[in-house]
């Protein structure tokens, strides 16, 4: 394919003030220059943007000083020109780039993806990438035992859906929390859950206590207060909380309040936060497990795909609100 590489192009920026909630109107397209690749760099035509909750960390408060943040997230694209020894022209690469059609990236900072005919390259964002490995690392730290009950919030998200399948294989009783009847149905039919509770219905705390039966041994928390707080009522004495993410709190910088905070002390709970990148020793086993299940066709995952750069802001905010299913992606045709 021959390309007309532009010298100027539009890229997404965010200007958000700390106290407000992140909205589509905080995003805007700005025209900027595209540099030529230097020694060691590659010119990449973006094909996919990964719409990840963690990008909100940089978005929230980005406009407090009056400036804006040029949105940078994980991208997959084609190396169109290369001055980096490790990146052949024409290869598919994964790296961190701006939300725009073209990026110049350092060769040392990108992964050249294997051209596997069995699955699309986007699995390297999700089930074979950060989401799958986060689930693997978090579940390894959770050390869930056969017969234990585990509760996983955002049960059908890219991380939660893999957690459910790992927990099932390890012989646990797997409970989930998700938004809406359809996601709860899929949690049970596709992702290995024994039961899934809809957080949009009232009385979550009482429903959790009832569903937990003898109590929750492990809580795998992806969301924050809306699930952690009621789950503290249903967790056993000496229970473990693996704090993976706080997705409910990524639209503002507000403090997070827990009415059941005292139960952490009264029930002698352990709460452990983690970053998947800090546990590289666990990655080979995780990658092997995920690849094997994917190759066998026994690992379920879903993607929600939006199309075209102008849709990026709307698609991102929709993801934060829990619209769509699984890994959220934007395709640039
Ligand atoms: N620790 C690490 O190393 C690491 C690495 C990657 C990701 N993470 C974190 O892991 C979590 C899951 O990541 P993911 O990529 O799989 O994202 P995700 O599940 O798609 O996260 C968004 C989901 O959070 C739920 N949610 C958002 N606001 C909520 C609210 N107010 N109440 C209840 N649920 C709410 C929604 O699920 P429903 O539609 O079901 O309500 C929404 O779909 C995120 O918090 C992410 O930041 C951590």
Q: What do you see in this structure?
A:
It contains nine helices and 16 strands. It has 333 residues and is an alpha/beta fold. Strands 3, 5, 6, 7, 8, 15 and 16 form a seven-stranded mixed β-sheet that branches. It has a six-stranded parallel β-sheet with strand order 11-10-9-12-13-14, sandwiched between helices. Strands 2-1-4 form a three-stranded antiparallel β-sheet, with no helix packed on it.
Please describe the topology of this protein.
Blueprint: E1 8-14, E2 27-33, E3 41-50, H1 56-59, E4 69-70, E5 72-82, E6 92-98, E7 102-106, E8 111-112, H2 130-142, E9 149-153, H3 158-169, E10 173-178, H4 181-190, E11 195-198, H5 204-212, E12 216-221, H6 225-234, E13 235-243, H7 262-266, E14 270-273, H8 283-296, E15 303-307, H9 312-320, E16 327-331
Helix pairs in contact: 2-3, 2-8, 5-6
This protein binds NADP nicotinamide-adenine-dinucleotide phosphate.
Offer a quick outline of the entry.
This protein has 333 residues and is α/β, with parallel strands linked by helices.
What value does the average pLDDT take?
A: 96
Question: Unreliable stretches, pLDDT < 50, 5 or more residues?
Answer: none
Strand content is 25-35%
Classify the helix fraction into a percent range.
25-40%
Number of contiguous helices: 9
* N- to C-terminal distance: 14 Å
Q: How many beta-strand runs?
A: 16
* CA-based gyration radius: 21 Å
How would you sum up the global shape? globular
Order of helices and strands: EEEHEEEEEHEHEHEHEHEHEHEHE
Task: Give the cofactors and ligands.
Answer: NADP nicotinamide-adenine-dinucleotide phosphate
Report the biggest beta sheet as strand number plus sense, adding barrel if it closes: 7 strands, mixed
Q: What would you call the structural class?
A: alpha/beta
